[in-house]
Specification:
This protein is of the alpha+beta class. The protein has five domains: 7-107, Zinc finger, CHC2-typedomain (DNA Primase, Chain A); 112-234, Alpha-Beta Complex (DNA primase DNAg catalytic core, N-terminal domain), CATH 3.90.980.10; 250-319 and 328-353, Dna Topoisomerase Vi A Subunit, Chain: A, domain 2 (3-Layer(aba) Sandwich), CATH 3.40.1360.10; 373-441, no CATH class; 464-614. It is 54% helix and 10% strand. The protein contains 27 helices and 16 strands. The strands form four sheets. Strands 1-2-3-4-5 form a five-stranded antiparallel sheet. The protein has a five-stranded mixed sheet with strand order 13-12-14-15-16, with helices on both faces. A four-stranded antiparallel sheet has the order 6-9-10-11, with helices on one face. Strand 14 (308-311), helix 14 (317-333) and strand 15 form a beta-alpha-beta unit. Helix 14 packs antiparallel against helix 16 (370-382). The radius of gyration is 30 Å and the shape is globular.
Length: 615
């Protein structure tokens, strides 16, 4: 279900929103000439190929061929619909979307996503009120203060409390006449298995609201205040909450991450609160799941290609396993990651409160790369006896085999061999099979270069649709013509009068050209408006790729390209006539019919051109 947004409001949002400002929220951008560049948030890359044009209000990645306007960016990045993207921008820029323009039916059809945000917001207010209440929240407040968390921190993170009982939140929403099916979809109540009805998911727990980057509540974490199990309970996956894409505290950490070009990652809610209270605002926490490629890609957008990720995991087996799992993720993201080794028996929370900031910074200055950390941990665990060395190699073969860079992997193998005093070749042999297995597993279909751009960049696009869209022999000239139409609109009338688009063979490019001609007389129409009118995302990317290049066009150059295009097509007609005569001579009826059909199509195009000239 979607909500209707009037066209004039869509235009107001588009004209008010600044794509550079919006993209900068999640991508570290640097100015290069007229444009801004950064690491693409949609795929892993070492060198920035993601370009944003403030002048044209569009973006395009020369690495994965994603492109469009500010709406397209939010839709792809956040996985949301166009109305949701438009409403998000409207809220951000203080643009009111009046409900009196909606019919009663449209008012009822509020998007599910919007409704879930509203339910989470009300649940957060309920938990917050319970926490601050001197009677119901006494135990929870006392527990938080006992852990050393001050008022500023628990206010900043909107800590709450879910009281004892099976239906406190349930009754709260019933009184408000909120659909219980919607509350269940938000993960706040659970359906009873044996009989009808629901019960509260969170009961007698300290509540940690989880926010997205736009400060909207997307889920909750709950912690017991005694030895009950499970210690932590998180919201399930919902249409607005995805654990593999969400990080606790990122809404408060993002600016400091961008400023320092580094981020600390911990695993627990209280670990994160402790870091923030001790001045480490550039810190986030995972939400009951391993670190994922989406997490790293998200963080990379804030810290940039030269930034550092510092894992602050417990030095127990669980922390070591978490480090092992993260190696492949960091390797594929081309990111520099290190790990702080805490003394036995300490987590980030307890260490900071006992030893303070200076001691923690000293540990951070000695942070190790993940592979050296795992080597040290394996040797410490197994020792250097013969059996110990065998176990060390066994434990290290998966982490080393996960490294895709041959040189980097070889250097670490050499370091391991020297560390345990064993023949380097023997270690290589152990790792080789793992490395080959991972390489075969990660193979993906590759597609030929589509060459969207006209000069400086080439684009390898792993997209079958776009690959098929560009395989005709006229594509290069046809792309040039569409590029000039986008960048030099003064030529649109000439294109229209000479019926150039009727000579196009590529249907995707032809439809883009037709759209441009349809709106050629609307002087207020901008490039980002054109992108809004295109339904197919592949065509939006084509427009962005052809428009974002900084080419210099003039009337004579454009006429030259158009004339050349027409000339080549005429030569093709002459060759076709020669093929028809040859087919007649050879009495090849099947080929003759095919060639005559082609000739008929060309004749129709020629007739259309004549009619256009007579108008």
């Amino acid at each position: 279900m979607t909500i209707y947004i009037p066209e004039d409001k869509v235009s107001e949002i588009k004209n008010t929103a600044d794509i550079v400002e919006v993209v900068s929220e999640v991508v570290l951008l640097k100015k290069t000439g007229k444009n801004y560049v950064g690491l693409c948030p949609f795929h892993s890359e070492k060198t920035p190929s993601f370009t944003v044009s403030p002048e044209k209000q569009i973006f395009y990645c020369f690495g994965c061929a994603s492109g469009g306007n500010v709406f397209s960016f939010l839709m792809k990045h956040d996985g949301i619909s166009f109305p949701d993207a438009a409403k998000m921008l409207a809220v951000r820029y203080g643009i009111d979307i009046p409900t009196d323009t909606l019919s009663p039916e449209q008012k009822r059809r509020i998007s599910q996503r919007e409704s879930l945000f509203a339910v989470n917001r009300q649940a957060m207010e309920f938990f917050r009120k319970q926490f601050l209440d001197v009677i119901s929240g006494k135990r929870a407040m006392g527990y938080v203060k006992k852990r050393g968390i001050n008022k500023e921190i628990f206010d900043n993170f909107n800590l709450g409390y879910a009281p004892k009982g099976w239906d406190n939140l349930l009754r709260f929403f019933k009184k408000k006449n909120i659909s219980l099916d919607l509350v269940e979809k938000a993960g706040l109540i659970v359906s009873r298995k044996e009989k009808s009805g629901f019960y509260d998911r969170f009961r007698d727990r300290l509540i940690f609201p989880i926010f997205d980057l736009n400060m909207q509540g997307i889920g909750f974490g709950g912690r017991v205040m005694d030895d009950s199990l499970p210690k932590y309970l998180n919201s399930p996956e919902t249409p607005v909450y995805n654990k593999s894409r969400s990080l606790y505290g990122l809404h408060l950490a993002k600016n400091k991450c961008r400023e320092d070009e580094r981020v600390y990652i911990v695993e627990g809610y209280f670990d994160l609160l402790a870091l923030h209270q001790h001045g480490f605002q550039n810190s986030v926490a995972t939400l009951g799941t391993s670190l994922t490629p989406k997490h790293v890609q998200l963080l990379k957008g804030f810290i940039g290609k030269d930034g550092r990720i510092i894992l602050v995991f417990d030095s127990d087996d669980a922390g070591i396993k978490a480090s092992q799992r993260s190696i492949e993720v960091f390797d594929k993201a081309y990111i520099n990651a290190q790990i702080i080794v805490l003394p036995d028996g300490y987590d980030p929370d307890s260490y900071l409160f006992e030893f303070g900031v200076e001691s923690f910074l000293e540990l951070a200055s000695r942070a190790k790369g993940i592979i050296p950390f795992l080597m040290d941990s394996a040797v410490k665990k197994h020792g250097l006896s013969i059996e110990g060395k065998i176990r060390v190699i066994s434990e290290m073969k998966e982490p080393l085999g996960s490294i895709t860079d041959n040189v980097r992997r070889s250097l670490y193998i050499k370091e391991l061999a020297e560390c345990i005093n064993i023949d380097e070749f023997a270690v290589h042999e152990k790792i080789r099979k793992i490395s080959l297995r991972n390489r075969d597993r990660d193979k993906r279909p590759t597609w030929p270069n589509t060459g969207f751009s006209l000069g400086r960049h080439k684009t390898s696009v792993p997209d079958k649709v776009q690959e098929k869209a560009f395989k005709g022999k006229w594509d290069k000239l046809e792309r040039q013509i569409i590029a000039m139409m986008l960048q030099f609109p003064q030529i649109l009338s000439e294109i229209s009068e000479r019926n150039i688009l009727e000579l196009f063979e590529n249907n995707a490019l032809k439809s883009i050209g037709q759209l441009l001609l349809k709106h050629k007389d609307k002087s207020e129409m901008q490039l980002s408006d054109i992108i809004n009118l295109i339904e197919k995302k592949e065509q939006r990317s084509i427009v962005a790729s052809l428009a974002i290049e900084e080419n210099i066009w003039d009337h004579d150059a454009c006429i030259g390209i158009i004339t050349r295009f027409e000339s080549i097509r005429r030569k093709n007609e002459k060759k076709l006539l020669e093929k028809i005569k040859a087919a007649e001579k050879d009495n090849d009826l099947e080929l003759l019919v095919k060639l005559l059909n082609q000739k008929q199509k060309m004749a129709l195009l020629t007739e259309k051109k004549k009619m256009a000239l007579l108008k």
